[in-house]
Amino acid sequence: MHVLRTIREVNAWRAKLRAQQKKVGFVPTMGYLHDGHVSLIAEALSRADYVIVSIFVNPLQFGINEDFSVYPRDEARDLQMAQQAGANAVFLPSADEMYPAKPMTSIQVRSVSESLCGASRPGHFDGVAFVVVKLFNIVQPDFACFGMKDAQQVAVIEQLVNDLNIPVEIVRCPIIREKDGLAMSSRNVYLTNEERTQALILSSALREVQHILIEQRQGIPALDIRALAEDMISNQTDAVIDYVEVRHYPSLHPVFADYLIKYDTKDMILLALAVRFGRTRLIDNLLIGSDKGSEIDV
Ligand code: AMP
Question: Over 90: is that where the pLDDT of 293 sits?
Fold first, then answer.
């Protein structure tokens, strides 16, 4: 596995593969790898000749009061995991390599990045869009894999790639969960045992909604779906809800309160949760409808 630390090294690696007409898949991450990341690498390997993973904690996508400085990092462990997963190269740039000077360009994907996490974390998706475009220009992959754990991020990147005709195919990958249902996240290490137990309410609430939708095929109003998830979280934990929202996907347009959501709806509907357990903010979601990207095993 090649360990590449500079943009020049990535360019040289990429040029060689281009000359050989190899298909290159890309998995951008912020490191502290877990099985969610590994599943993205596996998906990329199944579609490409070569797979490159980037590990970069992007300062631009963190707000001033967020966890940039304490975000978990473990380079040696990440390299071992990436290698075991079968990655052919890892790009590990320093902040100076990526941002030798303050960038003067901004990228804002309107509408889709304004609700949900975009509302709670102003500027977050501008930072994500910026680094993704930059990484795509450096790596020049044929496609890139993104997890539906961050469903809004996928919607933002798809919009960005469409708007700007960026020649990178975006591959949506399903959410990978711990055995007990908790969606894998590098941030799960922040949780105390007590918070870790309480955090199971996220997947339980989503599973309950999915179960009820399977039982009641005639559909359930969006308002009731939202209330069910919200009540479960607030009645069974002392966590602080950031949002519980039902939205069309991938537009993220609001859904009318009386809109009947059916398990096999042709429209895709996203039930998205963001909840704080102590100081740790976790997100999870269920995508209802024709794309079963985030279906929970029942
Ligand atoms: P991160 O390192 O958290 O920025 O995530 C890098 C990529 O891994 C993103 O595309 C995430 O959506 C994806 N990812 C993170 N957690 C999971 C998970 N539990 N299941 C699937 N993909 C994930």
Answer: no
Residue located nearest, by CA, to atom 7 of ligand 1: 29
The mean pLDDT value of the chain amounts to 96
187 C-alpha vs ligand 1 centroid, how far in Å?
A: 11
Please tell me what DSSP assigns to residue 177: B
Domain boundaries, the chain: 2-173, 186-288
The β-bridge partners of 274 are 243, 283
Question: Which CATH architecture is the domain 186-288 placed in?
Answer: 2-Layer Sandwich (3.30)
Which residue is catalytic, options 37, 124, 211, 253?
37
- How is residue 189 annotated by DSSP? G
What's the CATH number for 2-173? Answer: 3.40.50.620
Q: Which residue in 99, 180, 162 sits closest to 134, CA to CA? A: 99
Task: Kindly state the average pLDDT of the residues 50-77.
Answer: 97
- Token pair, residue 163, equals 């708007």
Nearest alpha carbon to residue 194 among 229, 230, 238, 240: 238
Q: Please, are residues 222 and 255 in contact by the beta-carbon 8 Å criterion?
A: yes
Tokens 């009641």 sit at which residue?
Answer: 216
Q: Is 37 one of the annotated active-site residues of the chain? A: yes
C-alpha of residue 252 to centroid of ligand 1, in Å: 20
Quick check: 203 and 176 in contact, CB under 8 A?
Answer: no
Q: What is the pLDDT of residues 226-257, one digit of tens each?
A: 999 999 999 999 999 999 999 999 999 999 99
> Dihedrals φ, ψ of 271, to 5°?
-100, 110
Average pLDDT estimate for 142-154: 98
